Fold each of these.
Amino acid sequence: MREQMTVLGRQAREASRALAGLTADEKDRCLRAMADSLESAVPVLVEANRRDLEVGRGLGLSGAMLDRLALDEARIRAMSQGLREVADLPDPVGRVLDERTRPNGLRLVKVAVPIGVIVIIYESRPNVTAEAASLCFKTGNATILRGGKEALNSNRFIADTLVSAGRRVLGDRFPSHAIQLVGTTDREAVPELLALTEYVDLCMPRGGEGLIRAVTACSRVPVIKHYKGVCHVYVHAAADLQMAEDIVFNAKCQRPSTCNAAETLLVDRSIAGGFLPCMASRLAGKNVGFHADSDSMPLIRFGIGNRTSTVREATDADFSTEYNDYILNVRLVDGLDEAVAHIRKHGSAHSDAIVTGDAAVAERFLREVDSAAVYWNASTRFTDGREYGMGAEIGISTDKIGARGPMGLEELCSYKWIGYGTGHVRG
């Protein structure tokens, strides 16, 4: 296993050097050809994905996880469109980030450069294969992709399609190992790959908390990550209640399997009677289950009536849980200070939102909630590279050193300083 992973790492390092010789136009033409190839292969990719879904059901994956795994024509076309959007974005490599001339005449320029070799480890979502590969390719980074065993057929087909399209455009100038998929599902591949400090520059895990913690624990290369997405929507006393209802419904139900879906609803006690029953009724229409504090439980029960949605009393651990499912924690609070204190205790520094018409309260929330993304009168579901105008994204980071929030092209660059002298020596 060590030898196999070393070969992947060595090939990726060589490919990263070759990528540096490609022009922005060459990379963009490859990305557009990759998008066209994926769209042309919709029936074949759907069939490969069908086999993966059978594997996933055999592994006992939840409905939410199977939704992450599933590809249909619409999702494949969206994946292709993401590649085209990346191609349309400016190439971040070579950007001048800073420039200064010292009193002695030495000119210093800070320039964006590729990171080098990036390992992406992820679960279930085959679209990550295309997103990660496209972003890394655009920024001149070679990528090694390690998906889950439940998505092996889809991931292999996507990776092969991308490489074949690049070869058709550039021939031998296309670095064949710029995009590599780890072909084994052996768990030992991960620690062996992440021990290759001479070849691998960065690892980015995408998936559940267990996967991310396991990767972080074994890695000898830097890891950019978020452990989980425990996202909140706080409905303040000055909220427009219809707006609040729409935002909460979207944040929980639009796609609950994602890390930016809301897991906890906080409601000011003073408006709970006029808001929670209607909110609970609407959520019950999507069979959302509720883990509620004792004060909110009667209002929720009244709202759902005879529907089949479950309601039980929330535990302290529930408020720190990422469900990725149709389950919502609910708690009543006495104002902004209590809501912020709750988020600080139970949140994951991912995405949190306030709904209010009071600008002063909103500004305090935006300032005091220390998450990668905070929103005023908007759904947490917007924490996404495409929604931020980045094209596809490679992941969400809740780290504070380096990239934070959705990671697009600029976040996949490092930088170097270039000095221009005329025989300068330091005295």
Amino acid sequence: MLNMQKMKFKKSMMTGIALSLFMSFNVAANELLLTDAQYQSLGLQVAQAKQVEQYPTQVFPAQAMFHPNATRTLSAPLSGKISRLHVVHGSVSKGQVIAEIESSELLALQSQLLSVSSDLKVLQSELKRVKKLRQSGAASAKKLQQALADVDKLYAEKMQQKNSLQLFGFSKKSIQTLLSSQKIQSSVLYIVSPIDGQIFDLTIRLGERVSENQALFSLGETNPMLLKVKVPVALANRLKKGHQANVSGLGVGVVEHVDPDVDAVTQTVDIHVEVDNSAHRIRPGQRFQVHFLMSNEAHQAQTVYQVPLNAITQFEGETVVFIKEGKAIMPKAITVKNINNHNLYFSLQQPSTKPSNTLHVFVKGSTAIKSAFDAAEESDA
């Protein structure tokens, strides 16, 4: 009983002190008017709110992965035996030899090219002879046309043979050496990486025999990389290809894909963010923190402000910031866009009708301001 009486007495004393301290404050139309001395005594601090074109969303976890359009499977161009594996895992550079295959079919293709090349030389010599005979009238036009057709046909076959060898990994230099020397070259096929990337899913072993078109391994392009982010449906509906995202430790990425499907269990949508990986700092499966940079929708036409987080407070059941206009302090109801890195991003629920959007917000002393409002109202009552 005694304790209850002490608490009531203490509360009445606190109220009395507050009334005596703030009784000289004036409240009119939900505005608090202070003198310069009162500003100083309360330790109030004002900052100009920064207008921003973009504001960050909340932070989401993301996981790195290969770009689906930059993942490929390399297969054996011809049947043969794996004679050497230069790389079995890790990163590879464009043009780097990954594996070698000894193939008797490669020898057969070289032999066919030499045979066609030899036959073409014979037909080209015959064509020259027929052209001379035609000039002297000793050969008919039909015979000349036939000779031309035979040369064209065999020339096309030779080009096809050369292209086939190139597709199977035979270099242009090796083909030139083959034709100039008229000797069969190596039986080794070189499997070369077509991209800067990373090997995974290696399915072959040294000495293993492989058939034509058999899968050997997969390659994933490592630059750029994708980060897969799961976001709520409401946010996904506002994201589009080209939106920017800030990735912890990496800088800015760009939204490359917004999945049309929703995960039935988590009610989230997969967002793919493309990031530069020229420095090779990102590995598939690595995790990052991502927040998206949102722009004001054109139909909202609202100014978004950034101030220190200390500015936000609750007043008369609303989320507000206290702003200064001249000597007056006014609470302004706000819509919180996000709170990130000790900064508050917000828009005013009832934007100012004044031409200037300059906003001076109290970033220190919100509790004192609320007490001043309460005390002044009690004094008026």
Amino acid sequence: MSVRWRMPAEWEPHEATWIAWPHEKSDWPGKFAPIPWVYAEIVRHLARVERVRIITQEPERVRAVLKKARVNADAAEFFPFPTNRSWTRDYCPLFVKNPRGEIAIAHWGFNGWAKYANFELDARVPAAIGRALGMERFETNLALEGGAIDVNGEGKALATEECLLSPVQQRNPGVSRRALEAALGKFLGAREVIWLGRGIAGDDTHGHIDDIARFTSADTVVAAVERDKSDPNHEPLQENLARLRARGDLRVATLPMPEPVYFAGQRLPASYANFYIANRMVLAPTFADRSDRAALNTLARLFPDREVIGIPCRDLVLGLGTLHCMTQQQPG
């Protein structure tokens, strides 16, 4: 990699958004039926502003769903790659761009969040996309999910120690903090990693950043906060907020947390920070919660040039992710 490559910020122009059509019913036990319709609604919005590249082995079935949802079918493309799950944020390629405007793939390994055994189909997707698009692909020889990092496109990245440095769900055993930082610099152009502490309760990934703090501009981060001191999220989110505010080089805004979301006794990782920034649009998760309006208003202030659209996610979050987890941007 003699040429300098960087991962563009999510708000930079997209050529397309990648999603994988849901098919693994066990990810939404007892609640799978509405999930394809949630996906169709998301595609309906995205198709207004950019191409949507859909990974599925059942394109005709998906087309029928999209037609019923009145989706602009001309904006959708279908790719018949087999997958284990639908969380493209974590196994799709991280696209990078060089000063000449060329796009390539930084191919990080995927090992099922160092937790699940059935991940091998997902792990093959970056190579398949590279072949389909005719893109150059750089092997990093390290594991990293897209939800574990957030970048500002100008040399800064956010990550958590819990996800990338903890011995629990350890993605890269024996790889030091310094080595990870060097790899993020080499392959994504991150000259500095801003380390936060822990993620939220119910997070199956053990600390993904995209449920707790996100860049909204090159010098602004929005961080989730839990006001209820008795909630297990209160202390770790306050610590993360303190780390961000102590820096002095970032503007820090806050997002509330919704009241805890449970299904069949399981706490789910419901967070407004799992929004997705598309061309001219921000899709934001909502949870039929009294804090929905405050979260949407905060995102509208942070993205004044984009339409902010709330997407009901109480069903989707049973799969242990929402809007950011199910999307991956391909820069223009």
